[in-house]
Every structure is written in C-alpha cells, then in structure tokens.
Amino acid sequence: MAYSSSGSASRSPRRSNRFSHIERRSSIHRSTTESPDGSMRQVRTRPTAHIRKSEDSASPRDTTGTVLIGISISMEAITHRPTWKTLLAFAIIYFVWGSTFLAIRIGVHEVPPLLFAAMRFLVAGLVLYGWMIARGERSPNPRQWMSVVVLALLIFVIDYGLLFWAEQRVPSGIAAVIMATIPVFIALSEILFLRTQRLTVRLAAALLIGIAGVAILMSRSLNLGGAPIDRTGAMAIIIGSLSWSIASVLTRRLPLPSSKVMSSGAQMLAGGVMLTLAAAAFGEFRNFHPSTISAGAWFSLLYLIVAGSIIGFTAYVWLIHHESPTKVGTYAYVNPVVAVLLGYLLGGEALGLRTILGTLFVLISVVVITTTRVKKTVATLAAEDTEDTQVTSG
Fold it and tell me: Does the residue 236 lie in any domain?
C-alpha cells in the first residue's frame, strides 16, 4: 500500500501534524515450496511497512508532506510492476510445467529413463550453477554441499528417477495427478513424525479424499470405464512423491545457500551427476544409440531443459519475489489439469470417468490441504520465533 500527501507543508500553527509518528512493523514468514523443476526452496515474505496516524502538537514548519511523498515514491517503485509480466510468469509455471509430463513421456519411449532424466538436470544444473558463479555468487560450503546431495538424492534420483521410469507405463496426465499428492504426504509426515501440525477434521477429510482419488485410478474392482493404470508404475510414482515430501520436510532443517538460484542449481547439478551414475549402473548406456533417436525426443529434452527447468524456474523465482507464496503455489492445482488435457489432446491418452473422478478427488484434497491454516504446537511456534529473530538480526 502506498501513502501520499496532498498539498505543501503548512505554516499555520492551527493545523496539526497528523503524520508525525511513523511506525514500521516487520515480520518474516518462512515456508518451504517445491516445484516441478525439482528444487527445494525456503521462501520468505519481506517486511511490510505500516504508517500510523497520530495527533501531535502543531509545528511551525511541517515537512511531513515531503517525507511522505518520498515514502510513497519509494514504496510505489517497489510494488509497481507491469501486469503482463505477472500474467506471463503465471502462464509459464501453469502451462509449461504442466506440459513437462507429456514431454517426459515422449522422451522415455526412445531414451532410457534414468539417462534421459540425467541429461535434463545435468545440463540445467550446469547452466544455473554456472550463471550464479559468473555473477559472483558463492559456491555452497562443504556443509551445504552435504545438504544439497541429500536433497538431490531424494528429489532427483528417487522421485524424478521413478517418475521418468514410470511414464513408460503410466499416462503422463495420470502421472501428474499422482505427483500432485505430494502435499498429502507432507501433511502426513508433519502430523505423524514431526508433530508440527495437528490433525483436524478438515485435514483428515482432505487426506482421505486424496487417498481415495489415487485408489480410484488404480482400482480394478470399480466399474468406471477405462482400464486402471499400471500398479507398478503408480506405486513407483507414489514412492517418489513420498521421497519428495521427506525432502520438503528436511529442507527446513538443513543448511542451504541463501540464494534460491544457487541452491536449486547445485541440487540439479548433483542430481544430474547421481542420475548419470545410476544410469550407468543399470546399463542404460548400452541401450542408448543417439543416431536412432528421433527429432521429437531430442526436442522434448531441449524443451525440458530450457522451458521446463531454466525458464520455468526463473519465472517461479520472479513470482516468489513479487507475489504471495499462496498465489504462486496455485500451480499445484493447475499443472495436473493441464497435463491431463494435453495428454488427451496431443498424446492420445484416455479421458474417461475414472480419470476425471480420480483427478477431481486428488485436486480437492490438495486444495483443502494447502489452504488449511496450520495449527502448530507451542514448541514449534517458540522455535519459529527464535529463528525469525535470528534472521532479522542477521
């Protein structure tokens, strides 16, 4: 909110100084987000300024108008941004990230899955990491590299490795829907293991709805039309989602670089290296012959690297700095819908009652969980207060 002052400074002793006391209140809210570019980031909303009006004694020289004009100009410069940039950034994280599931499916039908994932994240990680080093950003210290490797193992090797492998068996739209259950597993881990969130009736209902949605997609007993999805592939994606949820919880406690771009680039780079080693261990290089790969598969890889990882992540970071995390997090609702529609329209995937109901149940669960106000324990709140004080004073 910007504040302005009309008129020049008054010289009349009868006019009171209505804006002589300016109070600034600041608060930092920390949350952890994740995105389909595969990196974990700690999000902080920046301090906001509040100006409190008060009635004080008159002053023969009231310069408040000048001060407030300066504040107004400064705050407007911070908050003003072209609408088209915001819309474009949201369009990228909505539609580009939603389309990456179809691109993965196209690629893994010709390129071994772990190797295909390794090429994507190794190149994208090198670009982001190299870009930050060129800009003078510090490389992670040894302790931070250990955290980066742990998160890269959970996110890239386990989660993305299983996702790329499963898309040989599971339609891309259904894979996106199952991946959307990550908030369900995060909520479960916070309730059962961390004890940082309380189980309420609303949250319990949301968890059950999400589980029911996945069950509808996998069930062979329900007569909903269309064949149920491959159970092995579905279980692989579920295990991957669970792994990502563990990484999401750990990233709140592990030391990571302060720069989101450096942290994400390092995680992608480490993940790409480990995926390359995994691909070699499973003998995927023996089945890879670049000359036999079609132009469509190569284009899918290029699209995943440039659009899905680099451009998508850049848009995401820009939005995090200009919009609330709640608004930015809406991509979790939109991506599965985009993936299902693109799979149907461009990939020839089925779109029957089973897919519609399963998708609807999962999306309702995700929306309820991500919009539920977290009820934290006293110990958790005390720890966060201490953490916020350290961040503010540092």
Answer: yes
